[in-house]
Fold this sequence. Notes:
Blueprint: H1 11-17, H2 35-38, H3 41-58, H4 67-78, E1 88-94, H5 100-108, E2 128-130, E3 139-144, H6 148-166, H7 187-204, H8 207-213, H9 216-221, H10 223-239, E4 245-250, H11 253-259, E5 273-277, H12 286-296, E6 300-306, H13 314-327, E7 332-337, H14 341-351, H15 363-395, H16 398-403, E8 407-408, E9 422-423, H17 424-447, H18 450-470, H19 476-516, H20 525-539, H21 562-575, H22 581-620, H23 631-652, H24 656-682
Parallel strand pairs: 1-5, 1-6, 6-7
Antiparallel strand pairs: 2-5, 3-4, 8-9
Helix pairs in contact: 3-4, 6-7, 6-10, 7-8, 10-19, 15-18, 15-22, 17-19, 17-20, 18-19, 19-22, 20-21
Amino acid sequence: xxxxxxxxxxxxxxxxxxRTLSRYDxxxxxxxxxxxxxxxxxxxxxxxxxxxxxxxxMLNGSPxxxxxxxxxxxxxxxxxxxLRSPPIKVALIGAQGAGKSLSLNALFDCDGPSLTGAGGxxxxxxxxxxxxxxxxxxxxAEIKFLSAEKREVLLKEHARNYFHYQHVDVDSDDExxxxxxxxxxxxxxxxxKDTAEDVFMTLFGSCTAFQESWSSASYKSGExxxxxxxxxxxxxxxxxxALGTAIKLANDQKDLLKQLKPFIIKVKDITWIEIIDLPxxxxxxxxVRHAEEIKDNVDVELILADIIRIHSDDKVINxxxxxxxxxxxxxxxxITTKIDDAEHQKAQLEDDEDTVNDSKRNRGFETIxxxxxxxxxxxxxxxxxxxxxxxxxxxxAFNRILKNRGTVPQGVSKARGLENCANWNKDLASILAPSxxxxxxxxxxxxxxxxxxxxxxxxxxxxxxxHMMSKSAANLPTVEKTKKKWTTFHHKVxxxxxxxxxxxxxxxxxxxxxxxxxxxxxxxxxxxxxxDIYTDVFNTVxxxxxxxxxxxxQYKQYVEPKLKFQKRKLADMFLHSDRHFVxxxxxxxxxxxxxxxxxxxxxYLAGIExxxxxxxxxxxxxxxxxxxxxxxxxxIRADVEERIPELEQKIDNIDVKEDEDNLALIFETMAERxxxxxxxGRRQTKRIxxxxx
Length: 693
């Protein structure tokens, strides 16, 4: 029996004999029955050169002004060089993850010329041309990066597409309808979501890191976009592209691939052909629109489609029809990919198990978490005190008009002086506007060093945290994992700081508009102060005179004219030395501004503190799990283990789609029945008195 066991030295030879399918060798492939392969190209080339040289020798020394002989000489010289037509342009088209790049590698029998994604991820983010390479030069790629503005637009577009797909029911205004995520997204929405997900997973490095930073709230507040921008800027600095461009050099395509995917690839024995690998459809930005323009100018289109989705993907059919219309049916080929992918995915899902890995836990995480908590609590206490102090220093016809609280729109009154409207509040705001404008300028000047001060403070905290981690008693793998995790949270903190400064600028602008009645806004500083004044003056009248007993008809008479009295009272309320209106307006504005600023500052600093606490908690969660198994717990575990097969069988018997439809039908029926019962319950029955005949 022992003689049947193969040794390690014998196993490679045995394995080579057990291969069911040998590697494809295109050298052994039979050439097609085509005239190009039948003719002796080497002999033809030699005869053309010999003929050209013979004629050139005969015409050597011919007069330069003899145009006929000169034309014959040039023609003879050109015989030695075969004039080749432009290369045939072939476009690879298909959805993202359909296998275009993988098919390109297989087509040329080369490993690695084009980046391929595992699990259907999108890898070709730009248009890539593959042409014949003669070997005279090194491989090079000049990368031109998008500007910060274009990156922001692109990131916002991807984030919006992902948000609308994953949070379709967040903004629903229908409170009566049960919020259930629809499963009937069309193909375009799915492709846009897939593209956005691939972009963000590439940007964050993993799906887990992306999901930690993504949330509905972070998207709406703009914090997620700011985190993405910070990651882009950090990557550009690492790649030397801070100025907008970077150049990569390599001796061959594989070396260049280590730095960047190649833009030129050497293909043996293939000439007069140019293959253009286009980004997968599923995007809506200008890059894909440019790809559409390239596609219209090629000679042949190869459309690749996932066989699992081809029956439901209308984009494949529409693309094929458009390609046939542009290039003719002979120049369009549809290729199905991933034929063996379905069974592989099913087997992989069955093998996947969710288990707790004790090797990823370490007591060092808890030690670092405790040290970090001590650092950030002291930092936040000091930051809150200094920030509050800095921001605090930076902030330091008559009856008709009264009845309408200082405003009479044009056309409402025909009284003299009111034909073209009156707006005392606007007039007061115009008087005070220069003062508020001056305040805004001085405040902006005072706030200018605040942003670099915040950046410096958090940068010092970042360095202090890294130093603490490096000096920690935890082992080296634990420290490196912690530093990597801290990088993600540090970007979140930076995004919060940027958001804070934007919110501060926004509060300043809003308060200035509120004080100066910009855009004729009804909610403004002056109206808040004058509404009660106008009402008080309008309702106040002078004292009445004593009635004249001799008069035949009594009239209401005041001790002084009502208009004069109200004007004096209005002037007293506005210009009183102890409570001058300007002082009241400035103090009220200062109080409201300080209250709004304290609220904004507290909100963002609380958000930063939550990020620190989340980081500390994430480290504490990685400490070893220590608990004692009781007899009761062991008994429960044994009972659950026995029932697992029964529960799995029940899950397998559930038809989720059918149950969802049944639940929806039951809910709809119950809702209609409830409406019917409500309507009949409210109906008043008519009582008829019946009398005996």
